[in-house]
Amino acid sequence: MSRVVSIQGLRIEVAGRDVDIVDEINLEISAGEILGLVGESGSGKTTVGLSLLGHARRGVKLALGEVRINETNMLTLPERDLREARGKMVSYVPQDPSVALNPALRIGKQIIEVLEFHDFGGSSAARQARVREVMEEVRLPSTREFLRRYPHQLSGGQQQRVGLAMAFANRPAVIVLDEPTTGLDVSTQAHVLATIRRLASEHGVAALYVTHDLAVVANLAHRIAVMYAGRVVEEGPTAEVFANPAHPYTRYLMAAAPDMTGDHQMVGLGGRAPAPGRRPIGCFFAERCELASDICRESFPKPVSVGVGRVARCVTPMAIPDRTRAVPVAASSKPRESDTVLRLQGVVVSYTGKQVVHDIEFGLQPGECLALVGESGSGKTTLSRSIGGLHHEWTGVMTLDGQSLSRSSRDRTMKQRLAIQYVFQNPYGSLNPRRTVGASIARPLMIAGADEKTADLKVGEMLEKVSLTADYAARYPDQLSGGERQRAAIARGLAASPRVLICDEVTSALDVLVQAAIVELLAELRGDLGLAMLFVTHNLPLVRSIADRVAVMAEGRIEELGTATEVIETPKQEYTRRLLSDTPQIGRSTA
Amino acid sequence: MTIGQVVPAAPSIVKAAWRMWRTRIGALIVLVLVAFALFGRFLAPFGENESLGLPNKANIEGSWLGTGKLGYDVWTRFLYGGRPILVQAVLSTVLALSLGTLVGLVAAYNRRRLDDFLMRAMDVILALPQIILVLVVIAMFGAKAWLVVLAVGLSTVPRIARVVRGAAVAVVERDFVASAEALGESRPRILVSEILPNVIAPLLVEANLRLTYAVGIIGGIGFLGFTSDPGAANWGLMINEHRGVLAAEQPWGTMLPVTAIALLTIATGLIADGVSRAAAGIDRGTAQA
After folding, report:
1. What is the number of other CB atoms lying within 10 angstroms of the CB of residue A72?
2. What is the ipTM of this complex?
3. pLDDT at B163
4. Residues A115-123, mean pLDDT to the nearest whole number
5. Residues A220-251: pLDDT tens digits?
6. Distance from CA of B99 to the nearest CA of A (A)
7. Are the Cβ atoms of B176 and A426 closer than 8 angstroms?
8. Is B62 on the interface with A (CB under 8 A)?
9. Whose CA is closest to A199, among A246, A166, A229?
10. Which of A350, A556, B143, B260 is deepest in the core (most CB within 10 A)?
11. Burial annotation A456-466 (CB, 10 A radius, 16+ → b, else e)
């Protein structure tokens, strides 16, 4: 295999300041090879990915080193040649296709434009032929009718395929994929990933796949590079890295990944990666690493070879931090049918007059966690919002402790409102940005009639319960990281002393380590407080770690309801089986 | 768990705006003019209606800038004439601000029918040019000070309501509002303590802009002679009274109030600009720059 991409000593800085965003990056990709670049948000993975196009985002400067594609250094190329190279030599597939495609242009026209810019084939007929060919390559219809569609007339998966078609149109040597499947359902994701894999190998394209999701690259990439705080801390062949990670950070990432087999419980990690300009002299990970010693804090470890084609930047490579050792998930138990907190009978939910959720029946016992799993559009969030009193268009019976619930939260009694608490998906939207965290947590207490002094004390207590400290009360949401915000949002929910906590995709906006920490926290709270929990998610592997029972939803109906072990190990419905087989997992190949 | 570094809080919008020179210069000019308008009369060398004899003469013994209409001292009339414009402009803006904010918030929070009704009503008012509307009212009922405030204030309401509604519509959709609803917070409380704080930035910008316009309009109707007391000093009226002799022997009677009104609108405009840049900077997270 010939080497196509070679990144040597790349350093990218904050423009105008001598502060590095990423530094000491050395990576190589051969023709037909997919390199998975894994890291949490803010690790600099996208910044590195964009450098392959010779592009730096606003306020960012490509400072040192070289990025060569077939011996052309992208960093020294004049703007004119760079424009010529982009799309032809190297192309980019962004995260969100619905934003990346021009909504006012037909998709056929958009693909043609890319070809025309580079004068592909030399004739209009050749370009038309290429459009049809590339559409077939990404497994989309190449009919005139389809090419005349606008992006909004396509599904998310189809849009991303159009994005892929545009990227592959000029037969580039290199393609950079920036989390192209993040917004897609598992089944759509499985198909898009298969397409990427096939195209890369058939056309000998070198691909850089940027992602935060270990499971996705586990089945896709030939080699992976793990980034932490702007440095590549480990690199090697995928199978070997996953079989035996050399860097403790990789081990923590793997331990934090939800595991469907139930062989290991998710393990979270506190703290956060140091931001540019605040990075220590020694190993950036030392602060959070169980194995850190004084040597680690003296200087950032140099890359050491830890096997054939494997390097890691750690003074004790291959050592296993204790916390990352696998602890099996306890088998889920069947709940007693006796005391039910929340019960739904014949619940039908509509959305602007259209019935979207049909005939739902289930009960929730104290201390039980029921996971509501489904793809987007399955009605799981609409149903959970109805239970929370946030969506009013429903009929049927919902009872809380035997008393029936009104449709709107306003018509419920104060006791009922406090008893059901809702934690939202996005912690960036669920806390009022102009109000301190403490004031937000205090509201449910004040509503329940507490005076200011008691409320203050209780706020501190709640913050400690979610593993924050009392001094967080004085901070504003924008001073908190995503994980801390979600903890604060959970603290607000707990402040009401609820009986039922509805968690609506609470971890989907968070990084894996933070997600694991939140899942740990929720499990702990459930045990301590005997909370009944409705855990709404699209993430099946996550369910195994947290839920007692699972309800699989599709098209507004519960397809299957059983204990987590039953549903995942012996699924009865075809839909569940398909969902399970499309879900990428570390150590298991899909498709 | 270990606790992450403490991130400094984003500066408040007023503080961020104050870091900009345009805001400071604007504020300084406004301060000086406001001081003149409110307290200038205590520095006046003559009485408001004290005639020094000959009208429109630049060189009069004892008079700094000469005399104007009816032989009044121009400098004295200037020091007296700012108060009505300024007080009326501020009062009408405050009136417009409170009503406009209320209408905008209510419309944004109660989508569908009430929103439609309120905003179409605002559109009807907006369809009429503000200055004409004010002139019609004053021509019908006389140029009483409270009427000027009411007319200018009410005709400004739709503009503020639109801005507030536009900003609030996005806030209403956010989860913290749903969270407050789930807790059963009252509607007024949700409007005032959840939504309002999140639309303060555009509101401040609009308030400044509307103040600038109010100064212009009230100065304008003064110029046209619509003042509650035709004998009292008024910058707008003053311009009209002396424009005949502007090119002749006595330019000050026009120049002084014109300059003051121009400076006032420029200065409030500068502040508005500073605030809007600060708001945009805070929203983009670049307030430090």
Report:
1. 17
2. 0.77
3. 94
4. 89
5. 999 999 999 999 999 999 999 999 999 999 99
6. 23
7. no
8. no
9. A166
10. B260
11. bebbbebbebb
